[in-house]
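Priority: low. Protein: Aquaporin. Input follows.
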Amino acid sequence: GGLGTNSIAEGYGPMRALVGEFIFTFLLMLVVFESSEVEAPASAVAVICIGLAVFLAHVVLIPVDGCSINPTRSFGPSFVLMLRDSKEGNKAEFFADHWVFWVGPLVGAVAAAGVHKLFTL
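Result:
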């Protein structure tokens, strides 16, 4: 795409990207929930744990879809690119498969919150 936009790489379909976004957003958010509580044994190293989760997500997902794990991070560059490059043509092309970068991370984050809640019952 350009300007740091996310798009699904050739050879990967929307479902593979969706599953990847779900899994790695779930992982990141679960690490955030579990390591950043003041009472958590890992709270002193929460930054390292969170950074490693973000690193792992990027290592795996950059070749697949550019690694979103944050819907607004995908929306912003696509919106700016649309403003810069769109003519009277089809503006939808700037947001092709964008649902993947919203559904995957949002469902992954909600699932992580649910699992965290189960852990803390």
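Residues 14-35 form the longest helix (22 residues). The radius of gyration is 16 Å.
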